[in-house]
């Protein structure tokens, strides 16, 4: 027997059911199990030493002691999958499997939108999915919850190809938010709908990450590219959180936000791009979200009143709104504008009645009669609107009505914090209807027969994605290392880059830190060349580092090189310039401008110092999952990590341990949180001394820095 199983990426996996299937295969070698999925989430390994002392209590509190990890994912990390089990993932938990050879061999590189297409040829015979259920007067309502992304496309493609329908098994989770739009499906879609008899553990929640000066600088630069009334796509992680916080400051603290831009952008290049592509003013019309992933940042943008532009699935209505001919609530004489725009037809029939009710242009209780439309308040509206007198009557009814069934956010899957899941569960009314979780083919591309409407809804789109490295010629590395080992996967990044080029007013913006530290050494993330590429240079567009924005679209190679060097770290400029000259991409007499020499971390810290002091750039802008004591411990543990790499750092660490300095405020509470009491063996005493040193040294460093 061969089980060929498909399961959603991320949150949509029924862990207990998958574990049962996996353990059954492990126990019977006559069975074979092949699993197609992505992003198999597992709790972080607590490790040992100081890391374990910090993580074990946090993981217990954050995930719960009864959380069910995916057994196959744990065995993948350990290299222990049995021979009769294969797991193919198209997107990996970032960096988790770099040394897992079998995972690297079984990885499938594909765009997110191609997953359903490629699964058709794999003879899938079982689909399993975590769902949300609600009781209603008509029975049970079912929502695909976090993951309508691939399942619906797969079923449609199998049917179109004449392939047999796989068995579909849903597992209801009591905490899974019930999302609407494309995610709500008939219960009859599933062959089995299972419910656990015992209380299930909580949903996997991502701990929110701290944001540093580098990330804030990138977010501030990026935020000026966003146009009021436009469209936004963002990913996950601290860079995205920094962008969200910058957009929030643009809305709520505009004077200080503009001051931040000026402090970071001495030459005015970023502000010039903001003037031509985006803006620095608060949002009047708001943004529409069209993002494969929905996460905490969209929650904050909605709460801040920024994620507020509604998109309507009706070409005439959407065009009228885009042109400014129609606004909600509807003004006086609205019928003339609506009729001229084609929203109101010449004659009302049953189909048009349903359409007008859907968008709030008629009350739900209105009834169609021989010559009139009867409203519930007794008013009669003429069925024909091809005369000005008829439109006057309609205008009296329409004045002040609010348009309905507009979407402020479309996504294919969601993943985030406990607070984010609680927000989703609490959505109701138009806030609930305005979030459309739907298939990935509806979000990540323009194909499917409604290209004109999609392009109109996604007007002035800004697709922000994160990458690892870039070249001065505009190629980008996001998913794998030079030797081909996969860090994560391309996911939907290529989709959004290509879509930005397909849209007349769309732009792709790839964000990266200009440097990284590995094994105690500083490395440049802007490299002349690299042995792997995710986004080819012919799709180059906008690249953002902490030092500014490079606009590469339609530029010559020399122009691209100059733009990328202008946002590179000053410590690596001379080497990059030498390589560019050797390749003939810069003239031999080129001299690095003095302004580029000021691209240093010290200048960033000085520029952002006053805004930290005002509390505008918090370490955890979207909320924090750590206690106050744990937040004091995080910099200390980071200081230890940085000083444990490389012999030079280790020698400095030894000197610091021998002379740790004076105790700092909160030190006793931090030691107690880490389980250190007086006494103990030599190993425990050494760990205690290391932590004391880190608390004192990192505290001193923090005192000399902003925030």
Please write the CATH class name of the largest domain. Alpha Beta
Major sheet summary line: 8 strands, mixed
CATH superfamily of the largest domain: Acetyl-CoA hydrolase/transferase C-terminal domain
How many structurally independent domains? 4
Mean pLDDT over the full residue set: 93
Helicity level: 25-40%
Measured by DSSP, the beta-strand proportion falls in 5-15%
- Tally of contiguous helical segments: 27
What is the CATH topology descriptor of the largest domain? Glutaconate Coenzyme A-transferase
Structural class: alpha/beta
**Any idea what the CATH architecture of the largest domain is?**
3-Layer(aba) Sandwich
Distance between the termini: 60 Å
Backbone CA Rg: 28 Å
Shape: globular
Q: List the uncertain runs.
A: 703-707
* Beta-strand segment tally: 23
Write a short abstract of this structure:
This protein is of the alpha/beta class and about 700 residues long.
Features of the shown structure:
eight-stranded mixed β-sheet; Glutaconate Coenzyme A-transferase; 707 residues; single chain; alpha/beta
Descriptive account of the structure:
It is a single chain. With 707 residues, the chain is of the alpha/beta class. The chain contains 27 helices and 23 strands. A hairpin with a 3-residue loop joins strand 11 and strand 12. Helix 8 packs across helix 9. The termini are far apart. 43% of the residues are buried.
